[in-house]
Design goal:
Largest interface: A-B, 24 and 28 residues
Largest sheet of chain B: none
CATH architecture of the largest domain in chain A: Up-down Bundle
Oligomer: heterodimer
Helix content of chain B: 55-70%
Number of strands of chain A: 0
Strand content of chain B: under 5%
Number of helices of chain A: 9
Distance between the termini of chain A: 93 Å
Number of strands of chain B: 0
CATH topology of the largest domain in chain A: Four Helix Bundle (Hemerythrin (Met), subunit A)
Shape of chain A: elongated
Largest sheet of chain A: none
CATH class of the largest domain in chain A: Mainly Alpha
Helix content of chain A: over 70%
CATH superfamily of the largest domain in chain A: NADH-ubiquinone/plastoquinone oxidoreductase chain 6, subunit NuoJ
Shape of chain B: globular
Chain lengths: 195, 348
């Protein structure tokens, strides 16, 4: 049963991944990438790696791809020019993917941890195990990775934020502190006659 | 054979959740129109009645949801020129599916849950974050500027408030020490004062306000903003496709209300627990308390809509990023200290 499910999701994954690079419209490509994320999350669930599977959907599908789509939809992409590049960059793409395949084969051949995963899975949930590992054994690498990400984020913001003198900004603190007396004045006056 | 029986039972469970949910959604729309009507000193819908059933004769307007759904089912679905046909039809499904799928891990009473998974809270967060795709794709596939603007606003808003909402739920999981929703409810046992609304009050307030923003409801409904961008992302939708968006929105409201109850208001636990009234109300089934609490939250959504004017867009963003996220981060540290210190009566 699990085998059938695995092949089902794996086939969808391969199909979606292929479509990401072959489809004409960039928005469709992004949507196929989301489908690929979903199918790989399903494959991870079959491995009892529920935390990784859900984190993949939460982080990549729920946040990263939303921003991706956000940007792609706003772009005015010239579809014809996109097609021209496909054959030109195809050899480079094949070379890179061949290299990645070679690396994966070299690594995975000497790395056999499936037995370990299968035995520990039964009693303790995957989320607890990951939390234990991340916050005890790998505490420093984990915190350092977080700090690096924070620095990268701040750097990206400072690089792109070029505040010009001519820009007009709203000052929320002033807007929030406005009282009625600052904006409207109630006056008493006699009714004016028509003539 | 065993697999088949298991699948059959699961299917029955799903039906037992979905059918009452859809009925609740249908009558929630009526409740919205009636309640807001009363708040604005109107009567609300009162034409479609069940006159043939004697007991329901005086419930004016109670057939309205049925009449509405029949009307929407028979209306023509118009697909705009140059719209992306497949995505245009697919978008409402994408917004409804996560809203329904998230109900799989909601415990209605002790053990009354379709899938009692360990990472329940994470699953809920994942499902609610996927719901935004329906809106974005609808806005893009419609090939209309108003729809696109609505989709962009909604996407930015949902992504921003998801962070505050996620952090608020991180506080809950720290307090309960579990991601399983049933365990979170059971960790709140004791009395009304043991529920997490008290020790996590800032997170509770932020979760509640963020959930209003997440569901694109007034006063955060800039994604629809009928005075600025007509109806936002669903301006080009008609008939049943429009109805599916509506279903998704109301199913999401009920979902976030149910989550607020589970996380902060003791889920199915009786509010009289630990008081002298407890034996008097011992006969009340647990699910009643759950549904009653959810109804209070659902009512508050309508109340908000009838009370507040719409936020300005930059104010929404400021509230989310500069007010809510700092408060949640500070309170997570406070909760962490309280949990470490085993602060009674909540974190023993």
């Amino acid at each position: 049963m699990i085998k059938i499910l695995f092949y089902f999701f794996a086939l969808i994954l391969i199909f979606a991944a292929t479509r990401v690079v072959t489809v004409r419209n960039p928005v469709h490509a992004a949507l196929f990438l989301i489908l690929a994320f979903f199918s790989s999350a399903a494959v991870w669930l079959l491995l009892h790696a529920e935390f990784l599977a859900i984190a993949l959907i939460l982080v990549y599908v729920g946040a990263v791809m939303v921003l991706f789509l956000f940007v792609i939809m706003m772009l005015d992409v010239n579809l014809v020019r996109l097609r021209e590049g496909f054959t030109r960059y195809l050899p480079v793409g094949i070379l890179v993917s061949a290299l990645i395949l070679l690396q994966m084969v070299l690594v995975l051949r000497y790395w056999n941890t499936t037995e370990v995963i299968a035995t520990t899975m039964v009693e303790i949930p995957n989320t607890t195990l990951l939390g234990m590992a991340l916050y005890t054994t790998y505490l420093y690498p984990f915190e350092i990775a977080a700090a690096i990400l924070l620095v990268a984020m701040i750097a990206a913001i400072t690089l792109t934020m070029r505040a010009r003198r001519s820009n007009k900004y709203q000052k929320p603190e002033q807007q929030v502190n406005v009282r009625r007396a600052d904006r409207v004045r109630l006056v008493k006056m006699l009714p004016e006659s028509r003539d | 054979m065993e697999t088949l029986i298991y699948l059959g039972i699961t299917l029955l469970k799903i039906v037992a959740v979905i059918i009452p949910l859809l009925a609740a959604v249908a009558y929630f729309t009526l409740a919205e129109r009636k309640i807001i009507g009363f708040m604005q000193i109107r009567i609300g819908p009162h034409r479609v009645n069940f006159d043939i059933i004697p007991g329901l004769r005086h419930l004016r307007g109670f057939g309205q949801p049925i009449a509405d759904s029949i009307k929407l089912m028979f209306k023509e679905i118009i697909i705009p020129t140059n719209a992306n046909r497949f995505l245009f039809v697919f978008a409402p499904v994408l917004s409804l599916a996560p809203a329904l799928a998230a109900w799989a891990v909601i415990p209605f009473a002790e053990g009354w849950v379709v899938a009692d998974i360990n990472a329940g809270l994470l699953y809920i967060l994942a499902m609610t974050s996927v719901g935004v795709y329906g809106i974005i794709i609808a806005g893009w596939a419609s090939n209309s500027k108003y729809a696109f603007l609505g989709a962009m606003r909604s996407a930015a808003q949902i992504v921003s408030y998801e962070i505050a909402m996620g952090f608020a739920l991180v506080g809950v999981l720290m307090a309960a020490g579990s991601l399983n929703l049933s365990d979170i409810v059971l960790a709140q046992q004791g009395s009304v004062l043991h529920w997490y609304w008290l020790p996590l009050f800032p997170l509770f307030a932020i979760y509640y306000i963020s959930s209003v923003a997440e569901t694109n409801r007034a006063p955060f409904d800039v994604a629809e903003g009928e005075s600025e961008i007509v109806a936002g992302f669903h301006v080009e939708y008609s008939g049943m496709l429009f109805a599916v968006f509506f279903l998704a929105e109301y199913a999401n409201i009920i979902l976030v209300s149910a989550l607020a109850v589970l996380m902060f208001c003791g889920g199915w636990l009786s509010p009289f627990e630990g008081t002298f009234l407890q034996p008097l109300f011992a006969w009340v089934p647990n699910i009643f308390w759950f549904l009653a609490k959810v109804s209070v939250f659902m009512f508050s959504f309508l109340w908000l809509r009838a009370t507040f004017p719409r936020y300005r867009y930059d104010q929404i963003m400021r509230l989310g990023w500069k007010v809510f996220i700092p408060i949640t981060i500070v309170w997570i540290v406070v909760v962490g200290i309280a949990v470490l210190a085993k602060l009674p009566p909540w974190f023993v």
